[in-house]
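Dear colleague,

Following up on Tuesday's group meeting, I ran the structure prediction for the two-component complex that the binding team flagged. I've pasted the input sequences exactly as they went in, so you can double-check that nothing got truncated or mislabelled along the way. The structure tokens for the whole assembly follow below. Feel free to forward this to whoever is handling the docking comparison.

Inputs:
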Amino acid sequence: QVQLQESGPGLVKPSETLSLTCTVSGGSISSSSYYWGWIRQPPGKGLEWIGNIYYSGSTYYNPSLKTRVTISVDTSKNQFSLKVNSVTAADTAVYYCARRPSSGSKNWFDPWGQGTLVTVSS
Amino acid sequence: DIQMTQSPSSLSASVGDRVTITCRASQSISNYLNWYQQRPGKGPKFLIYAASSLQSGVPSRFSGSGSGTDFTLTITSLQPEDFATYYCQQSYSMPYTFGGGTKVEIK
């Protein structure tokens, strides 16, 4: 059973870069059957899709964040990562990593990690 | 972007009640609609895909319906573990978007 676990600093200063890693266990990130994604949830608010990556490195980003976001994959470590540049308080959120089937119509996320809270504050 | 609107934003119900949550898309999304359950402090759990197909392992008291712009999630005979927040998500086009959530609380 595949499990995902987010890790990274819980506090980031404004204007700096937020960096998170998702470690995949119980399955290979190099599977051609899946994309790997990031979704965030500001405190008390709804969910926002950030972007997806394929094991080959192909990426898809939410246009609202595209200029500040980079998602990368490290198949040797079975991990993928998220970087958000020039963060502000609006980037304070619980960040989730999740798996998405690569079959064209199956654009859902399952499973999800437990999430990690990142606070942007000086 | 396709906007997803859920109603109500919260509701109170008792164990054994039937609960219906509505999700409306700002444009037609055919049946590209998924539902998730989120318990406090946990990541969302995938429940239903393609508007009405139950994910493996999800209890049959959960059901979904709808097509086009209007969708519903129904929980028959609410159980204690069902008290949570529910989100819809459109998978018709990127960027994938979610509804604002419906919190199901104990009456």
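DSSP finds no helices and ten strands in chain A.

Cheers,
M.
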